[in-house]
Amino acid sequence: MDPFAIGLSAIFAAPGSTAAFYVDDFTLPQPIRVVRSQPNRDQRFGSVMAVVSDDTFSIRRSDVAEPADGSFIVLGAALTGNDPVGGEWFQIDGPAMLDTEGLTWSVVAKPVQPQERPGIVR
Fold this sequence. Notes:
There is one protein chain. Helices cover 9% and strands 48% of the residues. The protein has one helix at residues 3-13, and strands at residues 17-23, 30-37, 40-45, 48-53, 55-60, 72-75, 78-80, 83-85, 88-92, 97-98, 104-112. The radius of gyration is 15 Å and the shape is globular.
């Protein structure tokens, strides 16, 4: 096995990673593991500088072939039938970026309120 893949498996099994579901328009919710981070960055609003943070998720390419803009990551949900229920929902906002080794996707996602969650019909 590739040493990068072995190290990656350890990272995604370690504390700091969490179980989640990947939800898109085409498939049933997929159970995955993610590493969530919230890096700070400076953002200028006119003459004012503010520190903002984005929710960023690392997803193994072996779990999701290519995360799609507009798809969802759901943390801490239970699966009822084919629908994730409860938990924290995040919508992927922009293109996924693949790491140099081609093993991990990085996506930025925004929190989704319950009224904004999709009605999952397949």
